[in-house]
Amino acid sequence: MRPDLRDGLPPGRPLRLVAVHAHPDDETLATGLALAHHVEAGDDVHVVTCTLGEEGEVITPSLAALEGDGPALAEHRRGELDRAMGRLGVTHHLLGGTRPRWRDSGMAGSSAAAHPRAFAGADVGEAARALADLLQPLRADVVLTYDPWGGYGHPDHVQTHRVTARAVELLGEEVTGAAPALYVALVPASWAQEDRRWLRAHVPGGVRSPAGGTARVPDPDDPFPPGVVADDLVTHAVVDEGALPRQRAALAEHPTQVTLHEGWYTLSNDVAARLPGREGYAVWPASREALIRAQGEPPA
């Protein structure tokens, strides 16, 4: 069993934990189990969101007109995010204040990447300074974010990793003893394979999505995203099926992005993914060299 996120931290007081994410819903999809687990343990849990997801796809037919309307979709997703944070029981912050300094950059190659406020194009030092200033008064013990490849390569996820890693460095440079432990979210390959077997056994055929597509279970030989790594590269884990109801309740507040089923969900691509009650992490930057040897250089 891998150690949990309290590893090496002082016992006897609530843990202070902060997760940093790119868009609304990422917090619950990527780290929601850890957030729910630590809320239920009585810890002080926060989420920082870097953009309002202006470029997201909308899978709810009644809200389809929001897709492509950046300001309107941002406000709608802000509401979804606020409700999801209430379900998780965490304190929420937007990077840059009530009106985020940066916006969703869209997928790689999209026209949104050229927007002057696109987060993927932000100066890393400037964004890290803003994040460090937000983190410092929270006195976090632990910070969670994406791996260097952004889980599946979204430019804003990659940028969030860069910005968060630099912000934690700044805290260590400027305030002695103030740097929190930084963990990046990863999936052990054996878990990913188990999840695909579970999906094949539990996802019925012909399940339709709100937008009219059909849920698809990944084939056994489909490639995994770069966030799936060899088991020995995952140094820590949160395993708590009891926290799943809280994670599910938060996901249910993101209907423009997520369709929930019993034990699994789909996004706009209709590919079924499991909610397994466990999440893997690696301490950063100690794991950097091993991860890069295994997965190759992350995006520049």
Which helices and strands appear, and what pairs or packs with what?
Elements (H helix, E strand, L loop, with lengths): L15 E6 L4 H15 L3 E6 L20 H19 L2 E4 L29 H15 L3 E4 L4 H4 L1 H20 L6 E8 H14 L25 E2 L6 E4 L4 H8 L7 E2 L3 E3 L5 E3 L3 E7 L3 H8 L5
Parallel strand pairs: 1-2, 1-4, 2-3, 4-5, 5-6
Antiparallel strand pairs: 5-11, 7-11, 8-9, 9-10
List keywords for this structure.
alpha/beta; Rossmann fold; three-stranded antiparallel β-sheet; 8 helices; 11 strands; 16% strand; globular
How would you explain this protein's 3D organization?
The chain has helices at 26-40, 70-88, 124-138, 150-153, 155-174, 189-202, 244-251, 288-295, and strands spanning 16-21, 44-49, 91-94, 142-145, 181-188, 228-229, 236-239, 259-260, 264-266, 272-274, 278-284. It has 300 residues and is an alpha/beta fold. The protein has a single domain, classed as Rossmann fold (3-Layer(aba) Sandwich), CATH 3.40.50. The strands form 2 sheets. Strands 1, 2, 3, 4, 5, 6, 7 and 11 form an 8-stranded mixed beta sheet that branches. It has a 3-stranded antiparallel beta sheet with strand order 8-9-10. Helix 1 links the parallel strand 1 and strand 2. Helix 1 (26-40) runs antiparallel to helix 7, helix 2 (70-88) packs antiparallel against helix 7 (244-251) and helix 3 (124-138) packs across helix 5. The model has no long low-confidence stretch (mean pLDDT 96). It is an enzyme of class 3 (hydrolase). Its EC number is 3.5.1.103. One of its GO terms (molecular function) is N-acetylglucosaminylinositol deacetylase activity.
